[in-house]
Amino acid sequence: MQLGEEVYLPGDQKLEPCFDFEVEQIDDKTFFHTLNYSGRPLSSSHLNIIFYYLRKKAKYGINMPIKVTTTDTLFNNIIQRVFTEFVKGGKQDHLIDRSDDIMEYMKGFRMHCNTPWHQVDHVIFPINLAEIWHWILGCVSFHKRCFYVYDSLRSRKHKKAIQKVAEAYAVLIPLFLVSIEFYNQRSDIVVENGLHMGKKLTDPFEIELITNLPTQQNSDCGVYVACFAEYIIEDLPIPVANFDVDGLRARFGILLWHYGRNKQLHGESSESEAPVAPKKTRGKKRKK
């Protein structure tokens, strides 16, 4: 079946009632068809729902090996916009203090099942390279002061686009962490030692492109990003050989279908997952 070809007869594609995943409502069976078949690019809706599932797994899973949360796809749009304004404004610190949206994410607001960043060691980001429409994964490590990039389709063209997008994270995240007094809440991060030694808290993080990853053959970058994220959450090595993208697509499709059906029948969310309304306060002046 070719991309763009109609999958269902007119009217048959509707899901009634719709599947309410909290972060997105799905009323079209094509959503699952796209997820299930190799070569079909995943949308922001696919990634937002999968990453909501992964946030729940990281937050409520039993004996999870690391402390981690994720953002949604909107976060990248916001941080790229803020970085553009930051650069145009001469990289003035006061521009950071005006950017409430990013601070709300960091404080545990904005999304269902969010976790404040001072309670985790890693944050995972689904990122779309808009110039070439390609999904990559970002992961920040607070202890290592590094922004890691996972890309399933590496090329010179991709590397240039990735560097441009990753710079926003590497530059802005340290500034916002200081603005929300992140390090005052993290006695386990000794800023005078190790990778923090000789650096200001506001210095940019390092950017590292992860190598030795499985490489996509079709338009499956969204599935690779979701799988990379799950391996990180499980603290498992990402396999290069025997990376069964068709099986992984089917697995995510089955998981989300059953989750949506169970939520219709029994309810699967809790009040604690809802994003709390943030207090409208400005970040305090950052210390160097």
Automatic annotation (TrEMBL):
Superkingdom per UniProt: Eukaryota
UniProt GO BP: proteolysis
Signal sequence interval, chain numbering: none
Pfam families xrefs: Peptidase_C48 (PF02902)
InterPro entries: Papain-like_cys_pep_sf, Peptidase_C48_C
Region named Disordered: 267-288
Keyword Glycoprotein: no
Annotated ranges, domain Ubiquitin-like protease family profile: 21-232
Record's keyword annotation contains Protease: yes
Database matches in PANTHER family: CYSTEINE PROTEINASES SUPERFAMILY PROTEIN-RELATED-RELATED (PTHR31470), UBIQUITIN-LIKE PROTEASE FAMILY PROFILE DOMAIN-CONTAINING PROTEIN (PTHR31470:SF50)
UniProt-recorded name of the protein: Ubiquitin-like protease family profile domain-containing protein
Species of the source: Nicotiana tabacum (Common tobacco)
Gene name tied to this protein: LOC107769760
